[in-house]
Amino acid sequence: MRGPSLAVKGGILLAAVFVALKFVLPLLTAPLPMSLIYLYLFLTIIGIVVYGTLSGESTEALLGPIFRFLSGEGIGGAVKSARLAVLVLFPLLVGWQTYGGLAPNTQPPAESRTIHPAPPGEFVGLSNPLPNTPENVMMGTGLYAAYCLPCHGPKFNGNGAASDGFNPPPANFADPGTIAMLQESYLFWRIKKGGVGLSVEGHPWKSAMPRWEVELSDDQIWKIIMAEYAGAGQKPRTWE
Q1: Domain ranges, residue 17
Q2: What is the Cα Rg of the chain in Å?
Q3: pTM of the predicted model, to two decimals?
């Protein structure tokens, strides 16, 4: 008894990759933007095609069923009806997705929008325990370059090499409306817990910010915060 064809196996693998990136990964870390998911799916397709075209026999096993399905050659009955449904529904699906992404949305969110939701109680009132010395700022700058620069950029303006792939984009620390309006304890919470640590009211702005509590110690996070304020030319907000 023959098992599933190579084309069917490739389709199952592609669907599994999509489900893992779209629904499973956000449970473990931050959600990925769709542009990045599409890129991973494209790379998966390339891998399937390369694997399936290593020989003439495997090429026919992979591409033959696809070409016959698209051309309608040698098929009939239920398969022919399925072919017609795919050829009609696929363009409609692409058009619907395009329209949904471009059409203006005037509906309010399901919950109240809060750009800067209150941090959990354990982070309220925290202050940087490290002295703001040139040595600590220098060490924080090095850690920023290693962990934060790809997204937030060398000029601390959110224009890093990877910033175009994220929606919402990485924060622009040089903007007086961002970290200059926040206390250091808030930044400590956001760096430590990342996008997945946001409360429900912050979800309209849920970001792909990783949670760095495993890779970075508390002292390293505080030094990064020093470097961010120094590099952006800002000072943390204080309560008089």
Answers
A1: 6-102
A2: 24
A3: 0.54
